Amino acid sequence: MRRIFWNEHEHRLRMFWRLLGQLLFLLLAMILIQGGAGVAIGLMLRSGDRLPANVFDDFRRAQAWLVSNPLWMALGMLSVALAIWLSVWAAAQLLDRRPLADFGLHLDRHWWADLGFGLALGALLMTLIFLVELAAGWVTVRGTLVTHDPQLGFWPTILASLLLFVAVGFYEELFSRGYQLTNLAEGFAALRPRTAVWLATILSGGVFGLLHLSNPHATWYSALGIAAGGVLTLGLGYILTGELGLSIGLHISWNFVQGNVYGFPVSGGSFFASFLFIEQGGPVLWTGGAFGPEAGLVGLMATLLGALLICAWVRWRRGAIALHTELAEPPASLVGRQGPSGHGA
Fold this sequence. Notes:
5% strand
């Protein structure tokens, strides 16, 4: 392990500026990419006469129309994914002084195996949630292969939804785990490495939960449920492997199977199409109600089971369950430029 020369204050100050800098890069990227994409989409749709009359005369009407279409929604999420990727890449180059791959994107065979396990795990956990609620009489299946707009077609809508959740799984994990958690761990590197990693995981999970408070039907209970997932499954997958493959896979399949297979709300949002159409009942404390399973005790139980299965996977693949404490080490390029006093060699 590299010897660290920075003092505690300098660690945290650098962490703060790196996190703030990445957010500023993200704001700029979002303005450029989504602004340009919005203008292009508007011109294209206007020229093709595909818009309802005067839809762009009112911003709220335009926004509602775009998010009601799964293809445009998926393209919007891809633009967000691109903006976050660019912002993290710029921060990695200019602030962290290291390659983007160091934020959990070393795409070797272990990474892809973790991705596959994450995809399977998310589907398994959501299937268990559905079966538990079905056995308890809290959900009733009312239909199959349903879509909110028959003119769009079921399978094109499902594929657009899958594309949307792939984008969300990638950019939320790169942002919350890859960049934020890593920099937080380095910011607390003056503590013991294990303490720094766990503290960063809890803080990044808490921020992850708070960011979902703006979702439809969100409550403090739902934020706690999202935060628990950010720590106990998504965060755990990252800090035990040092890579984002497992977390990205779990995030994608959890959302897709939740909304587009079983018809549950996804973090408060409704689905565009689903293999099953369900009627939700039962106690909100257990089911999560209109926000979805993440806000209920059944979802929390699935999260705890997911944490155990992640530990079992890591032990089987890597031979031992151990924190990736290298996450608490500052970039070598920056450490090498510091002297014992923290003011330069």
